[in-house]
Amino acid sequence: MPEQRSITDKGGTMRLGTYPCDLLKGSLAHRAYGQTSILERHRHRFEVNNAYREALESKGLMATGVSPNGELVEIMETVEHPFMLGVQFHPELRSRPNRPHPLFQGFIAAAKATLREGAQPALPL
């Protein structure tokens, strides 16, 4: 819209392309990837507000993947669940039919392990 052309502050910084991420050793993400440093593709304007990071972590939601400078949270997960993990990037952009993304493989492995351990299966749709 013509009246918006002069607006330069759009409430965030567009992250587009591949960015590095450092993983916390022993985390779900670290176990899924098998390494401590990864590269992932982004396309968003969002980020975790670091002012809330301590409060989130005090409730069990841990930042387990961060930018190399520690400023941007890329991955958060909880230790209270077999595989609850949220990411800022798009793992589907690196997944292929013959080579699924490590996080998708980790999710399926966790689901299979949960069923083997006797968890109640999901209700049919």
User: Which topology does CATH recognise?
Assistant: Rossmann fold
Major β-sheet strand ordering: 2-1-3-4-5
Give the tally of structural domains.
1
Stretches where pLDDT falls below 50 for ≥5 residues?
none
H-E order? EHEHEEEH
Tell me the number of strands.
5
Number of separate helices = 3
Give the name of the CATH superfamily.
Answer: Class I glutamine amidotransferase (GATase) domain
Tell me what the CATH architecture is. Answer: 3-Layer(aba) Sandwich
Nutshell version of this structure?
This protein has 125 residues and is α+β, with helices and mostly antiparallel strands. Helices cover 22% and strands 26% of the residues.
Folded structure, characterized:
There is one protein chain. By secondary structure, this protein is an alpha+beta fold. The chain contains 3 helices and 5 strands; from the N terminus they run βαβαβββα. It has helices spanning 28-33, 53-58, 102-116, and strands spanning 15-23, 37-44, 61-66, 73-78, 84-87. It has a 5-stranded antiparallel β-sheet. Strand 4 and strand 5 form a beta hairpin.
